[in-house]
Amino acid sequence: MTISPDASKELHVFKPMPDLPAPLESVGIIGWLKGNLFSSKINSLLTFAALLFLWKAVPPLISWTIIDATWSLSSTPDPTPKTGACWTFIFVKFRVLMVGLYPQELLWRPILAFVIFGVVCVLTALRRLQTRLLIALWFFLPLPLFFLINGGIGLEIVEQSLWGGLMLSTGLAAIGIIMSIPLGILLALGRRSNMVIVKSLCIGIIESIRGVPLITILFMASVMLPIFLPRGMNINNLLRVQIGIILFSSAYIAEVVRGGLQAISQGQIEAAASIGLKNWTITYFIVLPQALRHVIPSLIGRCVALFKDTSLVIIVGLLDFLGMIKASAQDPEWLGYDAEAYVFCALIYWIICFSMSQYGKSIEHRNQWS
Amino acid sequence: MVITALSFIMMVSTVWSGTLEDIQKKGFLTCGISEGVPGFSIPDSTGQWKGFDVDMARAVAAAVLSDPQKIKFVSLASKQKIIAVSSGQVDLTSRTTTWTLKRDAKQGVDFTKIVFYDGQGFMISKSLGVDSATKIDGATVCVTAGTTSELNLADFARANGLKIEALVFDGKKEALNAYATGRCDCFTTDVSQLASLRTTLAKPEDHQIMPEVISKEPLAPLVRHGDNQWKDIVTWVINGLIAAEENGITAANVLEKKETSNNPVVQRMLGKSGDTGSYLGLDADWLVRAIQAVGNYGEIYDRHFGPSTKLNIPRGVNKLWTQGGLQYALPIR
């Protein structure tokens, strides 16, 4: 028996009716609004409250920061009272805010250092370089930058008491981070070591540093240490503070890294040992690469925190970015511009910290895919 | 990285000789100053330290090294100012430091000569109609934590039988803001700072500084204890600046006065006659250079606190003794 081509016409084939369009209130803008902003009574109330807040807060903010603000480049304060911000203050103080009291005629040196530093940051963010090369680059970066800013070998030496502003903040943070990551890894490994003395030494260092706030360490380094030094011996204040920051940061990084080390299963280590690998080889090629990958987000978090912590150095008399902001706002020629000063300060800190955490996020994202 | 760490400058001088020789050998003076007190020392827009304390130090540098620019300023936090000088990190601290017995006798420093007679005062809103600090019974007073101001306030309240509630803040700015927003009736700190802080308020004319000064805050530069020659130099440079004002010697006319003045006092001061410089281990022109560099005491005061500045702190007890103040130069001979 054959089925004629026409026979199919007689068969009752199930044909679903075309889908009705989704109800108007669950798609498009309306749907989104309903789902996200007005899903319940409380939610609607919160939405309206937030809208009211934005309505009240944003227009005055914009008019203060931009529309009513003074943008002139003059070098004296505007005598007429203004309703908006006076950014002239920031323009005039820009140099001291960035490099502190660094001599005018040598300004090209910190500028060049900033440019080099910026290029390396961009290269890092774009991930155009191999990881190994990148690590080496960062590790040796402080050396040329230090000589550029400090002088020596043909360049005129610039006293460290003249350093300040954002340059000092980033310098303290960058050297702090670069030095404390390897130190922190060593401490973490030491803490997991089987050698009793090394282990207890590392635990002692980590716990005693983590037991006190950074401000205490800075204070000890800056105020107490000179009392114990022999008369006439004088270790530079900045160096003392930098060492304090490195020690503090490495203790915290050690604990972060230890978390990563614990995530590596014992089985891997035993497997590696069973094929005859030495302890250090196992650590270097098997444990550390995996452990560090696990903790990259928290490491970046520590770096952001460390950058913000550098603002504490003002208590030992160093004029970092925040310190310069404070001092500038107290200049008798320019009294009464605190708001502008602190808004600018917050903006710069936010830009730097946000970029760092975005970079951390992107690494995290890439690791999920690899 | 080790190289980076080591390449930070470590200054190790093994022999501890006299401060004057040390300074002359290294060619510059190291001076501790505040990290920012309006009028006293503050970095200006061009990155130079400016202020009353700064000029005092420059006068010393001019006298000792013939150049007011041969000086390295180290900004010190309040808690470092004594230790920095007693441990030899700086040669001189010129940083709004009150001369007290404990500091002088126990903390390894010597004070030189009082450059500014300060004291703690009160600011109050005019609308309250209070004209004397003894009438602020029941008031809330904003004060900075950890300073002598807090202690003085408690002493003042007890001595006068006043019930005062102290509202303590970490910094002067925070305390002032609290006062400006009405969280307290009164604001207290040193008079020199009340004046400048008042100018930052929204309506300075609505606030008055009350006449009572409840504490003595004589501010003087300090040097390490035990180096008498160095202490003498700093002391007498400041004496010289005050004496210059007493005798009408200014930065502009000092050279002319040296040549033309018949006044034996002026002649001795400026090295025309007598031998004052050699007593200090300096040359005859020590004071001429100091005055040339920064002017006399009155000129320095006016430059940083005078009516032409925004701070405009009345000279008050810092006037010369001949005008009813306390500034009195010891005889230079």
Summarize this entry quickly:
Chain A is mainly α and 370 residues long. Chain A has 15 helices and one strand. The longest helix of chain A is centred in the last third of the chain and has 32 residues, at 338-369.
Structure description:
With 370 residues, chain A is an all-alpha fold. Chain A is 69% helix and 1% strand. Chain A is built from 15 helices and 1 strand; from the N terminus they run ααααααααααβααααα. In chain A, α4 crosses α8 (165-191), α8 packs antiparallel against α13 (279-309) and α14 packs antiparallel against α15 (338-369). Chain B is of the alpha/beta class and 333 residues long. Chain B has 14 helices and 15 strands. Chain B has helices at 2-7, 19-26, 52-65, 81-86, 101-106, 148-159, 172-180, 191-199, 228-246, 254-260, 264-269, 276-280, 286-294, 297-305, and strands at residues 10-12, 29-34, 42-43, 49-50, 71-76, 92-93, 109-111, 116-118, 120-125, 140-144, 165-169, 186-190, 207-209, 217-219, 222-224. In chain B, the strands form 5 sheets. Chain B has a 5-stranded mixed beta sheet, with helices on both faces. In chain B, 48% of the residues are buried. The model of chain B is unreliable at 1-15 (pLDDT under 50). Chains A and B meet through α4, α7, α8, α10 and β1 of A and α1, β1, β3 and β5 of B. β1 (233-235) of chain A pairs antiparallel with β1 (10-12) of chain B, so a sheet runs across the interface.
